[in-house]
Amino acid sequence: MPNDELTAQILAIFFAATEPVTLEQLCQVFPDLDAARLTDHVSQVMQDFHSLQNAVEIRSVAGGYRMTTRPEHHEIVRCYLKTRPSAKLSLAALETLSVIAYKQPITLPEIMEIRGIKGTSTIRTLLEKKLIQTKGRKKVVGRPILYGTTREFLVHFGLNDLSELPTLTELEEILGQDVVRSSATQGTQGTEGTERT
């Protein structure tokens, strides 16, 4: 990797950033460089950085650049993260978030119909964590609120955009069962009630 000052500065920014670093932000930090040159330089930095080691990578996430661990190390990193206290999402919240991610924009009654569970508290939890947001109201009787995912959702799950979400078939292969398809398409029969978030 070239040991020039610009490369070192860009890597330092990526390392220090808690959110994906956008090209616009880099242009503000380096006003003497145009966007095209910065884009080319970042691409070269990414390529050189990836060739030097296999632990960490710089990825395009949510419209910006972010330093992350490589996918092959996710399990060991997950084991480490379990050793420290954190504000985890419950299974109910993850299920609700999955339905919203794949079916958005979607209303609460539609979410409840798919999941077969009354889950108003999970919506509140996801809104508080800024993983979902309101997307207006559906033009039907009662005009229920529509929900969709946020940029924070993309950041949290390391996605550049929603097209990077795994397909239902891929999820089934990962889980080794048909739970994903059944919960995302028809809901769970006979499980109405409340749930914890």
- Gyration radius, in Å: 20 Å
Nearest-integer average pLDDT: 82
CATH architecture of the largest domain: Orthogonal Bundle
**Shape field:** globular
Would you state the CATH class of the largest domain? Answer: Mainly Alpha
Q: What is the CATH fold-level name of the largest domain?
A: Arc Repressor Mutant, subunit A
The portion of residues forming beta strands comes to 5-15%
In total, how many domains does the architecture comprise?
Answer: 2
How many helices? 10
Largest sheet: 3 strands, antiparallel
Distance between termini?
46 Å
> What's the CATH superfamily of the largest domain, by name?
Winged helix-like DNA-binding domain superfamily/Winged helix DNA-binding domain
Could you please describe the fold and organization of this structure?
The chain has 197 residues and is of the alpha+beta class. It folds into two domains: 5-78, Arc Repressor Mutant, subunit A; 91-185, Arc Repressor Mutant, subunit A, CATH 1.10.10.10. The protein has ten helices and five strands. The protein has helices at residues 5-16, 23-29, 35-52, 74-81, 91-103, 108-115, 120-128, 151-156, 168-175, 179-185; strands at residues 56-61, 64-69, 106-107, 132-137, 145-149. The strands form two sheets. The protein has a three-stranded antiparallel sheet. Strands 1-2 form a two-stranded antiparallel sheet. A hairpin with a 7-residue loop joins strand 4 (132-137) and strand 5. Helix 5 (91-103) crosses helix 7 and helix 9 (168-175) runs antiparallel to helix 10. The relative contact order is 0.12. The model is unreliable at 178-197 (pLDDT under 50).
